[in-house]
Amino acid sequence: MYVLALVTQKGGSGKSTLATGLAVAAMQRGERVALVEADAQGTISKWKDRRENLYPRVACLADPAEIEPLIARLRAEGIWLAIIDTAATNNRLAMRAIANADLSLIPARPSPADIEAAVPTLIAIRRLNRRFAFILNQTPTRGCRLSEAATSLNSLGVLALPFIAQRNDHQDALGAGLGVTEFAPEGKAADEIVALWGWISEHLVGEFDEHGQAAVKNAC
Ligand SMILES: Nc1ncnc2c1ncn2[C@@H]1O[C@H](COP(=O)(O)OP(=O)(O)OP(=O)(O)O)[C@@H](O)[C@H]1O
Ligand SMILES: [Mg+2]
Hints:
Layout: E1 2-6, H1 15-28, E2 33-38, H2 43-49, E3 57-60, H3 67-76, E4 81-86, H4 92-100, E5 103-108, H5 112-127, E6 132-139, H6 145-156, E7 164-165, H7 168-176, H8 180-183, H9 188-205
Parallel strand pairs: 1-4, 1-5, 2-3, 2-4, 5-6, 6-7
Helix pairs in contact: 1-9
Residues 15-16, 39, 41, 43, 85 line the site of magnesium ion (MG).
């Protein structure tokens, strides 16, 4: 079983939106997926309450000491991918999620303040010597500011591809209890999430520099 953690102390960067979007995209590729909610805010549970499909399974986690037993239970159930959604703070639960993740994903909006705000999370991940990748989220659909953000993130570590643009489908899917690939399967937001899941799955199961230093060149 592989474990992904969506982490960054910066609020509103898209951790929960990407967690649900990626979970459903992976499920649609035939994978057995569980979402782990490690945020008392409850975005994932509320999304699940609005959802008619029983899957993906959602497990809630409040105590950092429960994370390893939960992962063991999910593995025993035959889950192939667990995606942990964490709160917007570098709390003990988030740190424990990072320590248990095969890959931590750090979403950031393309602004200097958002990128700076991700740095404490990056430092914590590096201290734990764990693999990570940034995701540029809520990017403008056009404009060159993006390349500055991409350059900044590339200089800090690996930047996942593609960038995820600001699109209403993400918000509407979250509100409908759906993954964006269920909500608007033919839309651009769905295309981007499918491609992002492709990038992540390759980096999860493929050969990957343990320190995640392979820079990816992007420019608009
Ligand atoms: N790519 C996107 N396009 C449009 N809206 C988005 C996108 N990503 C996230 N959002 C919206 O931005 C808001 C914040 O996203 P989300 O709740 O996923 O962030 P978060 O990092 O989980 O926040 P928190 O730190 O509070 O848990 C939500 O309204 C969500 O629907
Ligand atoms: Mg959230």
